[in-house]
Every structure is written in structure tokens, then in C-alpha cells.
Amino acid sequence: MSGTDRAPAFDALRETLPYQPVLLGAIALLAGTALAWAFDATKVPIAAAEEKDLRLTLAQVLPSGFADNDLLRDVVELDGPKGKVTVHLAKHAGAPVGAVFKTAERGYAGDVTVLMAVDVRGTVLGVRVLKHTETPGLGDKIETAKSRWIDSFAGKSLADPAPAKWGVKKDGGVFDAFAGATITPRAVVKAVKGGLDFFAAHRSDILGDKP
Fold it and tell me: pLDDT grade, residue 50 (50/70/90)?
């Protein structure tokens, strides 16, 4: 059989066999293998970068030298009002000295998520905003790059100010608001107050002792 005779025969055979599905399957297999290899090759450095970022973030809400343990390893998972809460336990010389955890409340354009640290007495050590979608130039003053407003929570507790004063000044509270953006600071105040309530309710579970 000549070459010209074999070509039509091959074309006819290709039409009768599942040629295209087999070809697509082979391509998909190759693509899947490549993606799996790329994932395996990058997951370790990505995880390392995420761990580094979390360590830096945790350090921002704790005073320098406050804790000497690995906050990423000393964690407690607890049920919060909006789901599971990961609490990072701060220790010094083996003894619990505080806790760091996330809390969130609805702002103007979405949830405002903050990371806050408290000592064993329930006094705020530091607060930082992790995520928000508030209006640039107004609500974004909750970021430390725009203002130091967030630092006003340091030293506060459920006893100072009194519960009725945990609000912005427009609502009769002690915290400043922003011109044209009261909803955003109100959400942060509520989030921090909620975090203090959470710590007070779970203090023994977090620290492993009695109040």
C-alpha cells in the first residue's frame, strides 16, 4: 500500500476511534501533572512566607520582649460568637502572660477584621486592623499608615472605660470618630469590646487557670 493509500485509511481509522477524547485526556493528564508539580514546588516557600507574615503581625500588637514563646505553636481553638477563634497564647518564662486573637465587626463597606492582644487581666496591649474595605481617605484612618487612632485602645479594659462608654463620642463613648466616617470607627470599637468580652468569657480556657 502506497503512502497516498495509507493516508485516507489512517483518516478513516481516526474517525472511527475515540481519537479526540484520548488526545484531550492526554493533554489534561499532562497539565494536571504540571500543576501538581508546580504546587508541590511552591507550597513550602508560600507556607514559609505566610508564617513569617503572621509572626510579624503578631509582634505588632505585643510590647517588645513581652513574650518569649512561639506564638504560632501555642494556640487554643475556641468557639466564638461568629465561629471558631484561634487564640495565640503569649508566654514568658513558661507562664501565660497574654493572648492574641482576631475579631471582626461590620463596617461601612464590609467586615473590619482586627488583631488584638490582651494581658492576663484583660487589658488591651495593642490592636491592628488586618482587613477592611472602608472608603479611602475616610474610613482607612483605622490603618496605622494613615493615623495612630488605633493606638487609643492600648491600656483599655472592660472596667476602663465603663461598658456604657465603649463607643465613639457621637454615641456617648470615649473614642474619637472620623469626620464623615463614624460607622468605621464605631465598628472597630465594637470589635475590640467584643474581643474583651470573648476573653473574659473564656479566660480560664485560654490561660488554663481560674479568674
Answer: low
